[in-house]
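dumping this here before i forget
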Amino acid sequence: MSFDPAQFKRLERAGYNRIGPRYLAAAGSRRDLADTLIAAARLAAGQRILDLASGPGLLARAAGDLAGAAGLAIACDISEGQLACCPGLVRVAADGESLPFADGSFERVLCGLGLMFFPGEQAALREIRRVLRADGRLVLSVWGRAEEVPLVGTALSCMRRLLPPPRVERPSIFRFGDADVLARCLAAAGFGDIGIQVVRLSTDFKDAGAYWQGFLDLAGGAAESLSRLPAAQQQALAAAVVEDLAPHAVETGYRLTSSILIASAGPV
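structure:
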């Protein structure tokens, strides 16, 4: 069976709709990452800002505070369930590969841990470039290399051990984890003046159960797929992940330190 981008999007949308409030609650553990991205965006009063793949709107809310009454921050996501978690913000449910905004609408586009979920990343980046002003900036974050992101990779390792290979391969969420690959991807979509920094995110869990639930609260499409397994198989995965977590054991439970790339670029 060949890869179906439309089916992939439906699965991701269903998954993020499913975990909406839980994703918002778990996002607090990644607040330092959000703060770093906001700082890299160099936001100012009066700017028009689009937060793409906004989820529960943490970046959009912070951007709106900085843009002030004279500016505008819009939370945009394919998942209505995620957007329902950010009342009080201007919200638009839309596919990031086909944005409902006019050319040159924004001074900034933010995309926190979102690009890797667009099966057509070049289409999404071209749309971002289109809606940016000529002097605007895109600031985004992506997961690092697979071996450097145990927050996600540990659960995926457990799933590979216990589950049969998927019938259809998903695009890797780590495919932009190399800075050179990410830079080439941005350049191919018409961006220049590209700067990339690597930041580290440490997340603590009291036990394996807390880690597994934390993964389910983070991974939309994967969480949706797992929810469709028999209950016994779901329970087996939750129990087995302790083996994969062993390298990350600390006195208080588990600490997983992951790499994230933050990139800034402008249209050329």
